[in-house]
Design brief:
The complex is a heterodimer.
Chain A lengths: L1 E4 L7 H9 L4 E4 L2 H5 L4 E3 L5 H10 L2 H11 L4 E4 L1 H5 L17 E5 L10 E6 L1 E2 L14 E6 L1 E5 L5 E7 L1 E9 L2 E4 L7 H13 L1
Parallel strand pairs in A: 1-2, 1-3, 3-4, 4-12
Antiparallel strand pairs in A: 5-9, 6-8, 7-10, 10-11, 11-12
Chain B lengths: L4 E9 L2 E5 L5 E5 L1 H10 L5 E5 L11 H8 L6 E4 L5 H9 L4 E4 L1 H5 L2 H10 L4 E9 L5 E5 L4 E5 L1 H11 L3 E6 L11 H10 L4 E4 L5 H9 L5 E4 L1 H4 L14 H7 L9
Parallel strand pairs in B: 1-4, 1-12, 4-5, 5-6, 6-7, 7-10, 10-11, 11-12
Antiparallel strand pairs in B: 1-2, 2-3, 7-8, 8-9
Helix pairs in contact in B: 6-7
Classes of the chains: A alpha/beta, B alpha/beta.
């Protein structure tokens, strides 16, 4: 069972739909009580960094999330903005992030011809093996939509990189904590494989 | 490097898929959910669904049908047609669509663009611009599925929607739509030169070469395909298909796109 955190940022329909297709049970948790039962957590997110942090801080979710992630050490994966929230801070906002992974979130540089957001399908490179990279091949591509990207302090935490103006971390892993910048739920069989890998951890 | 997005654009008329020529005569294509299922299996980059009668009939989107379509899709989805207010857009996005597409209602109420972009982010807001040459030989923006001239200049309107917060522009040449004769490169280039947001070129695609031309020569960030992906070939029967990915990659200069 995977618990999807519903804190009002982004819709969970597509993620739920893909888990259904690959036969993985999910539960949506919108409050602390529902989150208490979680044994594996997925933190989605679309929108602005500060609004997301405000909602997590205000809704009583943070304390339970923190206990689950850092003390009970259940697997937690952040997707897109959810990945960025795991870092210390983002150039998008002024509020601190959750800071569970030593990493920062930066804005794409202003380069000629580089349209921001980075939006579309991109290839990835494997930086190191991890359960999430099971089955990845050279034609594996994922769908990205983001204006900010994550850079892990410890390069050992970087699992997949992608390139758009700069090389950035597409997937990071730090102990039981994971982050993916792309949208697996919108990435056909490549995304299904990725979510299946997370479900099997 | 990013792949150029090649996007089937499907037209809804009531609850059926159709394909039009120059926004006029249409051919019945089939059931939307079955068709979308095929595009999902073909692993297309992205899909756009446009309800071409919603605004003309002054009705809201067919949310039940949109939900059924979304359930068949594991790729990014955009929807346009009859989105007249914040609540309509929110309902569409909640169904699992990433992008809402506004056209007539954006012209009648430009602050709608900003309201949507502020709340959902610019990446979720596409403004669709339908263009036809007027009797005086000027390119003009048309509303209500190409039935009404607005006297707006497409380049000026594109600049304005960008400044209002549109994250992308779906630019359609009515004259080329459904003709297989190639994109209107001049129109596309005029708009891509004027804005920084991605422009999806629509109207006239008949071959992979046409796709490469509008990207290479006119600066399109993405292309929308209509007839090419629902007919066997020009003048032939319905066949849901998609250009060979290897050939597309080769023509779009992405034959060896790895960055390491």
């Amino acid at each position: 069972m995977i618990t999807l955190v519903d804190y009002g940022m982004g819709n969970l329909g597509s993620i739920r739909n893909m888990f259904k297709r690959i036969g993985v049970a999910v539960e949506v948790a919108a409050d602390a009580a529902a989150l208490e039962r979680a044994s594996k957590i997925l933190l989605p997110g679309v929108g602005a960094f500060d609004s997301a942090m405000q909602r997590i801080n205000a809704g009583g979710l943070r304390e339970v999330l923190e206990r689950k992630a850092l003390r009970e050490r259940v697997p937690v994966m952040g997707i897109c903005l959810g990945m960025q929230l795991l870092t210390r801070a983002s150039e998008e906002g002024s509020l601190p992030g959750l800071g569970w992974i030593p990493a920062v979130t930066r804005r794409f540089p202003d380069l000629p011809g580089l349209k921001v957001p980075h939006m579309g399908w991109n290839l990835v490179c494997v930086a190191r093996d991890c359960p999430l990279t099971e089955g990845i091949s050279t034609d594996t591509r994922y769908y990205f939509v983001h204006s900010y990207y994550v850079h892990a302090d410890d390069r050992q935490d970087c699992v997949l990189t992608a390139h758009y103006g700069v090389t950035f971390d597409a997937v990071i892993a730090h102990d039981n904590l994971y982050g993916a910048q792309f949208h697996p739920e919108k990435s056909h069989r490549f995304g299904m494989g990725f979510l299946r890998n997370f479900a099997s951890i | 490097m990013l792949r150029t997005r090649v996007i089937p654009a499907l037209l809804l008329r009531n609850a059926s898929l159709v394909k039009t020529v120059r926004f006029g005569p249409f051919t019945y294509v089939g059931d939307p959910c079955n068709t979308v299922r095929i595009f999902n299996e073909l692993e297309v980059d992205e899909l756009v669904v446009l309800d071409i009668t919603a605004t003309r009939e002054r009705r809201a989107p067919n949310f039940a049908l949109l939900a059924d379509i979304a359930n068949e899709c594991f790729m990014p989805l955009g929807y346009g047609g009859g989105i007249s207010c914040f609540a309509d857009a929110q309902n569409v996005l909640r169904l699992g669509y990433e992008k809402v597409i506004v056209n007539t209602h954006a012209m009648e109420n430009p602050p709608l663009i900003t309201e949507l972009a502020d709340h959902f982010g610019s990446q979720a807001v596409i403004v669709s611009i339908d263009v036809r040459r007027s009797l005086w030989g000027r390119e003009r923006v048309y509303s209500r599925s190409g039935t009404r001239s607005t006297h707006r200049d497409p380049v000026a309107w594109a600049r304005q929607v960008e400044s209002l917060g549109a994250g992308e522009i779906l630019l359609t040449s009515i004259r080329r739509e459904g003709t297989w004769n190639g994109f209107d490169l001049g129109l596309v280039k005029a708009v891509t030169d004027a804005v920084r947001v991605p422009v999806i070129a629509q109207g006239g695609a008949g071959s992979v070469d046409h796709i490469a031309q509008v990207v290479d020569l006119a600066g399109a960030s993405a292309v929308a395909l209509g007839s090419m992906v629902v007919f066997q070939k020009k003048g032939c029967g319905v066949l849901v298909n998609f250009p060979d990915p290897a050939r597309l990659a080769e023509r779009l200069g992405q034959a060896n796109p790895r960055h390491d």
